[in-house]
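Why do we care about 3D structure at all? Because function follows from shape, and shape follows, mostly, from sequence. That is the central idea of this module. The next example makes it concrete: a single protein chain, its amino acid sequence, and then its structure expressed as tokens.
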Amino acid sequence: MKKWGKRVLIAVVVFLALIGLGHLFSGPAPFGKALGVIEVEGAFWVSDDWVKQIDTFRKSPNIVGVVLRINSPGGTVAAAQEIYDALKRLALVKPVVASMGTIAASGGLYIAMAANQVVADAGTLTGSIGVRMEHFNLEELLKFAKIQYETIKAGRLKDLGSVSRPLTAEERALLEAMMAEIHQQFKKTVAESRKIDPKVVDQFADGRIFTGAKAKELGLVDEIGDMGKAIEIAAQKAGIQGEPNLVYSKESGPWFWKTIFGSAKTVLSGPLACYMYP
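And the structure:
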């Protein structure tokens, strides 16, 4: 074979290899029928990345089922609710099995409620059905640093939650009423998703935590088992014979960086409603 022929052959081989690698890192196409794996690690402050991942798997003809792996203490209320809604849309067309790892508490539990089936380890830390909001009062620190902090506002409650002063009695009452409303939303989601009498949910939805084994007794978990068990169940529901191919979703950055960045944002953004443990 002439040199130019060898060069053409090498170029074709390299081109095909690059196409294969492109498919490998851009989506599930080369695997045929497969299970998608979505990993929710650490605290979540916004939902965008996870919603995109969920929607990608929902639209992919190659993904026939999804395992939602949760190792999270929760996050902001809005993020939890948006992830939950995206998972519910997914669960309407493809089986979704939640796998609770070390911790799936508060918002971590909330998003698990969207799955068709929930699997947890016996020692998984879960529960914490409640809502919280933290207010940072930096008034004394600002005085110490000799920083003049002024707010110009129109509306008596427009600077509610300002870090430059403590909450007034009126503001505290307003926020407590809002927390009670959001707590009720959490309890309603649990009752409807797990088909548990709301009065029964009220008995344990006071923020307490419990093990995966206890969660099964309460009806929040269907099976005791690890990630492998969740994959097995998802494969069966999806009609996959034998060992399933797994396609892991891509994240925009490491979970610990998102957690640190999100924690810093809570100080600067004012009070945020969170389904978060502790």
